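Contributing new records

If you add data, match the layout below exactly. Sequence lines come first and carry their own label; structure lines follow with theirs. Keep one chain per record. Anything else will be rejected by the validation script.
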Amino acid sequence: MTATAGERAPLGDKPIQVWTLQVGDQQHVVTSQEAGWAKRLVVWCVDGIEVACKASGEDKLVLVPTVPADKAFGAMRVLHSALSAPRRAIWFEGPEAHGAAHLGVGGVDLEPEPGSPLALREERMAARPRLYAARHVAAGVAKVVGPLVVAWLFARLVGFFDFSLPLPDIDLPSIPLPDIPWPDLHLPSIPWPAWALPDWLVWLIDHAKLVFPIVVGMALARREVKRRATAAERRDALRHRDDPADGN
């Protein structure tokens, strides 16, 4: 990417991810580039003018405009993977843009630069939404099963070694405690109705720690599939926001 007026020049020959979003006559461009070990430089420009910049190793960054403008720029949320790979850039508008960006609620995804690795990844996900949803569920299962497997392996490892230590036998003194005559309370017997929970509900309660992450993963996967299905339509609506022929 070639730097224009007001934009930062790329950091050497390190790969840079570019996202764009056209909002009427306003063009938003976000770039993310490696800026050191486990750190990335994220720059947000509007119409070629840098409005926000942040260098951090966090996987969730929120950028807010730091320059005065005659138009409301909103806020930008940029996501990276745990290995600092760029994933998404999301634009938020309105008076609650800053708070929504921090919460990650709503927003419109910017479009990754055509031909970039991220754009190819988005195309693969769009072609197989069910597979992508299954990965979300699998991630939830891994969060549950992973610690159980580690605990099982640790228990097996302990069985191969004798970690017992000879502890000293300490003769502690006997302390005489007073005998307090507590009163006997006779509570009335309440005839509670006899009922039992359904077996399936009992099973869910007993396995809540196992079921909850899976359910959350399924909900997130469904929401993500829906978001991706409407992303292009929302970007197109923003592109024609100030178009007289659009009738808005």
